[in-house]
Design brief:
- The N terminus is likely disordered.
- The chain starts with a strand and ends in a 7-residue tail after the last strand.
- The protein is of the alpha/beta class.
- Strands 1, 2, 3, 4, 5, 6, 7, 8 and 9 form a nine-stranded mixed β-sheet that branches.
Length: 167
């Protein structure tokens, strides 16, 4: 079950995402799910959609400068780190402390917008298979609806082929 945001006191991350979406004129406010949606499958199940419609946010650490690299991909795809490295340079793992410090969000709730420090962002082309997608809204219970083109507009990020090829 989804709950309108007006009826709850919101976590700080969701408030930041809500403000960023409002400032950008995005028509869909975040929703708070009754159950946590820390994985793409959990979010899809809660929303009654296919897992590919979940825009999952994967954070890496760029080795050259320590910048956060955000890859937004379809929930049914796996990021190909070599493809991402070809675009942004060598990558390292981002632990929970790094993710929280750079994005302001905890793992499981990383939104594509309203980061504490703007990340280097790439949008996976596979998201464009869908008319409507859903992304995390700054908290494991928070999500918001958008179109893949909205993701481009909201983040200013390029669209790239960054997932493993299906065999």
């Amino acid at each position: 079950m989804n709950t309108s945001l007006e009826s709850k006191s919101l976590p700080e991350g969701v408030r930041r995402v809500t403000a960023a979406l409002q400032d950008a004129g995005h028509p869909h406010a975040p929703l708070m799910l009754d159950d946590a949606a820390r994985t793409a499958q959990q979010a899809a199940d809660a929303l009654g959609i296919v897992v590919g419609q979940i825009a999952k946010s994967i954070i890496f650490r760029r080795k050259s400068d320590g910048a956060a690299v955000l890859v937004i991909t379809s929930g049914d795809r796996r990021v190909d780190e070599q493809r991402v490295e070809a675009l942004v340079g060598p990558l390292g793992r981002a632990d929970a402390d790094f993710v929280k410090a750079r994005t302001g969000f905890s793992i499981g709730g990383v939104a594509p917008v309203a980061h504490a420090q703007p990340p280097v962002t790439l949008i996976d082309r596979e998201l464009f298979r869908f008319d409507e997608i859903w992304a995390a809204a700054g908290h494991p219970h928070g999500v918001f609806r958008l179109k893949p083109a909205d993701l481009e507009r909201l983040t200013g990020a390029p669209v790239a082929d960054v997932v493993q090829r299906k065999v």
